[in-house]
Amino acid sequence: MEPVDPQLWMFVTSNLLVFALGSSLTVLSYKAQRRLGEPNLRFTTLGFALITTATVVEAVYAPGIAGGNWLTSVPLLILYTVESLLTASGLGCIAYSLLRY
To answer: Nearest-CA neighbor of 76 among 87, 66, 85?
Structure first.
């Protein structure tokens, strides 16, 4: 069995982080909308759900488009990993600010 590249593990981990943070924000937003009864918060919930879904779809769908050699392209893996980490950082900042409010 071949060893798995560390870049692949970083890609998977960063996308799992985005999924966890995005899902948490979606749930927090939904609970806030239910508690406060503000219709505008429905769009916030939908927005977080769409961002989370888009990230997961990209992580699953991108290898299918590029074919099998996508997973061996280190620069492409690093690019997607950095993109996911930036998205996760943004979602983390939003989650932190909401939890402190």
So the answer is: 66
Residue 4's SS3 state is coil
Between 64 and 37, name the one with better pLDDT: 37
Domain spans of the chain, in order of start = 6-100
Whether 5 contacts 77, CB under 8 Å:
yes
pLDDT one-digit tens code per residue, 47-96: 999 999 988 888 877 766 666 565 567 787 788 888 889 999 998 888 88
Tokens of 84: 């996911």
CA atoms of 51 and 68, how far apart (whole Å): 26
Q: Where are the alpha helices (DSSP H) in the chain?
A: 6-36, 40-66, 74-100
Across the chain, mean pLDDT equals 83
Instruction: Quote the tokens at residue 59.
Output: 């992580």
What whole-number distance in Å separates Cα of residue 66 and Cα of residue 70?
5
The packing angle between helices 6-36 and 40-66, to 10°, is 160
